[in-house]
Amino acid sequence: MLSGKQVQSRELTPSHEHYLRAIWAVRSERGYARLSDVARELEISNATLSVGLKPLEQRELLSHDDRRFLVLTPSGERVAREVHHRFQVARMFLHDVLGVDEAQADAEACRLEHDLSGQTVERLLDLIKLLREDRELREFFQRRYTEYHRQCRPTTECATCDLACMGTPGPGIA
C-alpha cells in the first residue's frame, strides 16, 4: 500500500519530488532516462535539473548507470512511486468525483501531491473506490451533486466568514 509521504519524502522539496517522479516516469516509458529527457518532461533547462539532482544523489535516492543514464535507487523509486500515487488519487478525486476538468485536475493534483498525508490519500481512495463499486450510490451522488447548489450567495465576505453558512456539523460531518 502506498500510503503517502514517508519520512524521507517529507524532507524533500516539491521540486525534488517532481524530479524523482519524472525520472521514474521517463524510465518506465522508455527503459532509460537521460538528463535531457527528464528536463524536457519537466519543462526546465538541463542546467536547472543538473543542479537540482545533486541533493538527490547526496541522499542516495539517485545514481547514474555506466552510460550516465539516471537511475533511481530503491529508496528513490519508492519516493517517486509514492508521489505518483498521491498525484493519481488527487487527480481522480478532482476529476472523477468533483467533475473538475482534466487539465485543471492535473495542474491542481500536481500541487496537492506534495501536501496530502497518507491518511487523507487512503480515505480519498476509499471514497473513489466506493463510488466506483457501488453503482446505486454513485448514481445517487452524481445526480444530487449535479443538482446541488449552495443556498448562500458567495460574497467578498465569504473568504473571511469562517464558513458560518455551514452551521453546526451534522452526524458524521466533522
UniProtKB/TrEMBL annotation:
Keywords: DNA-binding, Transcription, Transcription regulation. It comes from Eiseniibacteriota bacterium. It comes from the Bacteria. Belongs to the DtxR/MntR family. SMART domains: HTH_DTXR. Residues 11-68 form the HTH dtxR-type domain. Residues 73-134 form the Iron dependent repressor metal binding and dimerisation domain. InterPro entries: DtxR_MntR_Metal-Reg (IPR050536), Fe_dep_repressor (IPR001367), Fe_dep_repressor_sf (IPR036421), HTH_DTXR (IPR022687), Iron_dep_repressor (IPR022689), WH-like_DNA-bd_sf (IPR036388), WH_DNA-bd_sf (IPR036390). The lineage of its organism: Bacteria, Candidatus Eiseniibacteriota. It holds the Pfam family Fe_dep_repr_C. This is Metal-dependent transcriptional regulator. PANTHER family: IRON (METAL) DEPENDENT REPRESSOR, DTXR FAMILY, IRON-DEPENDENT TRANSCRIPTIONAL REGULATOR. GO terms for molecular function: DNA binding; DNA-binding transcription factor activity; protein dimerization activity; transition metal ion binding.
